[in-house]
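STRUCTURE:
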């Protein structure tokens, strides 16, 4: 089964690594994709699964509120974490988590090798090693990554997770290598 050309190796990546257009206003680093990360994955010949953007799905594209903030980024990081915990967004988030868990379960069940998942450090939603709270980057996970990690554990699934920052290209590639090697 599944003995065709596919390599059966998969990496899940945060939505905005492939599509910067999903990022909140004022925070994109690239016109389209993070070419360093995507280029390395293409070279590795792995299947790339684009995770849903939790903030776009839960809060919409125009979710910034820079009015009165000294830094739109800092304001975003504080406000968004709270907004994601509201009843309706939390319900949507749970659905997104369920969808990802189903996909991971399916690939795992059929013997595919999920090499890992790449999140975005400092993000209030997609941070893996660091997130943001009370205007500060701090150790911890964003709400989406935390929910995914819990759900993976609940379903007996193991997925290695790394966090990268677009502005730290060399470090990001080094971390990615740890999944690919
Ligand atoms: S870090 Fe996560 S929530 Fe933020 S734009 Fe990227 S995918 Fe969306």
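SEQUENCE:
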């Amino acid at each position: 089964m599944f003995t065709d050309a596919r390599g059966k190796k998969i990496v899940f990546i945060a939505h905005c690594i492939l599509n910067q257009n999903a990022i909140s206003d004022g925070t994109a680093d690239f016109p389209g994709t993070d070419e360093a990360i995507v280029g390395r994955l293409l070279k590795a010949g792995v299947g790339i699964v684009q995770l849903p953007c939790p903030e776009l799905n839960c809060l919409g594209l125009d979710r910034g509120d820079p009015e009165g903030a000294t830094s739109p980024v800092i304001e975003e990081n504080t406000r968004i974490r709270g907004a994601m915990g509201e009843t309706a967004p939390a319900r949507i988030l749970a659905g997104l988590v369920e969808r990802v868990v189903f996909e991971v379960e399916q690939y795992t069940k059929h013997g595919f090798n999920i090499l890992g998942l790449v999140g975005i450090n400092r993000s209030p939603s997609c941070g893996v090693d660091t997130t943001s709270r009370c205007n500060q980057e701090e150790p911890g996970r964003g709400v989406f990554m935390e929910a995914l990690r819990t759900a993976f554990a609940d379903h007996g699934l193991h997925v290695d997770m790394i966090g990268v920052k677009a502005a730290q290209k060399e470090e990001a590639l080094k971390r990615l290598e740890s999944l690919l090697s």
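REMARK: Helices lie at 15-18, 35-44, 54-59, 72-84, 87-109, 143-154, 169-180.
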